[in-house]
Design brief:
2 copies of one chain form a homodimer. By secondary structure, chain A is of the alpha/beta class. Chain A has 7 helices and 6 strands, in the order H-H-H-E-E-E-H-E-H-E-H-E-H. In chain A, strands 4-3-5-6 form a 4-stranded parallel sheet, covered by helices on one side. Chain A has a two-stranded antiparallel sheet with strand order 1-2.
Chain lengths: 197, 197
Amino acid sequence: MTAFERLLSALSRLPGIGRRSAERIAVRLARDRDGIMKELVEALEAARNSLCGCGLCGSVTPLDRNPCRLCSDPGRDSDALCVVEEPDDIALIERSGAFRGRYHALMGRISPMKGEGPADLRLRTLAQRLDREGFKEVILALSTDVEGDTTASFIMELLKGRPIRVTRLAFGLPAGSGIKYSDPLTLAKAIQGRQQA
Amino acid sequence: MTAFERLLSALSRLPGIGRRSAERIAVRLARDRDGIMKELVEALEAARNSLCGCGLCGSVTPLDRNPCRLCSDPGRDSDALCVVEEPDDIALIERSGAFRGRYHALMGRISPMKGEGPADLRLRTLAQRLDREGFKEVILALSTDVEGDTTASFIMELLKGRPIRVTRLAFGLPAGSGIKYSDPLTLAKAIQGRQQA
């Protein structure tokens, strides 16, 4: 295997990078050895020497801080676990200020179209955490599309029989918007979920 | 800047990688430090120590072989220069066996939609090569879509006044196919370009 083929093969293993993208990236890197190639090598080495995945929620965390800052914060509510698709969803929920419990990133969702099944998700770790950490509620903060629904159904099936309340985020109109700017499905969900004013 | 932010920034500079893809890749790498992260670092280092871009055609070539094998092959026809979008197009044309001249990869094409203009292409190198290498024909082997057409028009304008024949690949029916499987535009081009049987 030549150095170029080896680089192609390593790039192709990254999420979302197909053969064609890997080729474009490899050519670009080889053509700019002292620019973006050097920068990437150094950034990867720095990351490799200092970062890892949090054993609980799955976010990236410094090597010497695993579990991560959020997972090891004693001030947080340990009754509720919020399940998200990707680690970067956690920052979005934190920014809302509406949740002060624990998190668990699945690292994806069930998508038969993309060949991603339950085995690709962090479901075993989820089951272990439920056994050990004694959560009373699991909030499924998943996408509001077919793949999110499939993933939610799968997890609800998995949690059946456990004394845990399972909830999903509410569907409805986005804040600062109105029915004029809303698609029919969102509007239907908002009507079905209408609440006492 | 943390090690994670630095990695995100380096990944975001790769072609075709947006902020969201960079995050997915960075998280995946950080979570598998001794797997795909290690493999990628080693592949990049090997590539950096042995590969570069050919100063003429733009393909990837070993550091100690610049110009590349094709560009320095004295057995090839030095009258004709085939201009392609990406270096990997060269391998496709070589496989056809129908061209034995020189190549020049533009590294993209003009695409206002993607914010890619003439300045992003290897056009200055193209002009220098035409000055120095004395080609008699430039074959534009570009895509048969709007962006390919725009790029071709731009290059034709650039070559105006030079005593060089500029050609484009023929449009028509693909081999092993028939009018039944052809889209109307391809069919129209095939009729317009019909030849004596």
